[in-house]
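Hypothesis: this fold can be encoded by more than one sequence.
Test: take the structure tokens below, design a sequence, compare later.
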């Protein structure tokens, strides 16, 4: 957290690593708190999804929004994390789950994960279509993109008294404008970071859920490639293509045949 690096080249040159982990490195050094034992039997290429997308998506539903059975919800952005939000809503007992995305392929994936309706985004009528489906808006809305316009859309699809949870990470400096008069309708908005929970507790529980068949990890993976394909994977991410890519250093060790 002090800005220094734990990684160096053989000649001592320091290497800066992303998010204190260096996910695209063949070897890394992690803090002891980040080494969490998981139950055996879960392939590593699937377990890798738990530490970001799954714990973030499920935590947004369980810990930040505290969704109850029978609630209605909208998920704006159905990529790797958004699909986990959809899955968590289904397990929480939400009866109306509306997936919102520009990409028809991602909407199909969301319907397969438990969404009850799909709305293609990108027009001025998106919020109105959600309101028609719900007769006035949803109880919970989740933003999983990280853009000002999608955060505003998440607010706009709420019913009076509903709460929006912002999961997406926006670039520094991005600001969001909301109509102040609508605060009188008791609508609310809050942030969520890494699921608002305790990874030491949440990750083993989610792993057990996957082993029991209650959580489909492989279903959100649209590409599995060697580590050398990292640049192509990042390019797809920038273009918004696919849901989740898993990069393998050692396919045999990762349990992917």
């Amino acid at each position: 957290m002090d800005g220094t690096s734990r990684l160096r080249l053989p000649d001592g040159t320091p290497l800066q690593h992303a998010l204190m982990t260096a996910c695209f490195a063949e070897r890394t050094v992690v803090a002891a708190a980040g080494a969490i034992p998981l139950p055996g039997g879960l392939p590593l290429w699937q377990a890798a999804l738990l530490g970001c997308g799954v714990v973030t998506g499920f935590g947004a539903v369980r810990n930040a929004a505290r969704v109850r059975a029978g609630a209605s919800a909208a998920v704006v952005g159905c990529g790797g994390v958004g699909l986990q939000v959809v899955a968590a809503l289904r397990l929480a007992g939400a009866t109306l789950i509306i997936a919102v995305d520009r990409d028809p392929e991602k909407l199909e994936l969301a319907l397969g994960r438990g969404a009850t309706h799909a709305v293609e985004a990108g027009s001025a009528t998106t919020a109105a279509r959600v309101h028609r489906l719900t007769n006035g808006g949803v109880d919970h809305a989740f933003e999983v993109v990280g853009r000002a316009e999608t955060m505003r859309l998440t607010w706009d699809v709420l019913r009076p008294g509903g709460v929006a949870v912002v999961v997406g990470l926006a670039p520094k400096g991005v600001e969001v404008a909301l109509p102040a008069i609508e605060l009188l309708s008791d609508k609310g908005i809050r942030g969520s970071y890494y699921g608002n929970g305790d990874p030491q507790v949440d990750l083993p529980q989610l792993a057990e859920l996957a082993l029991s068949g209650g959580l489909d990890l492989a279903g959100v993976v649209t590409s599995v490639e060697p580590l050398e394909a990292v640049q192509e994977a990042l390019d797809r991410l920038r273009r918004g293509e696919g849901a989740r890519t898993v990069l393998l250093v050692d396919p045999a060790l990762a349990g992917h045949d």
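The chain has a mean pLDDT of 91. The CA atoms of residues 30 and 57 lie 23 Å apart.
Hypothesis status: open.
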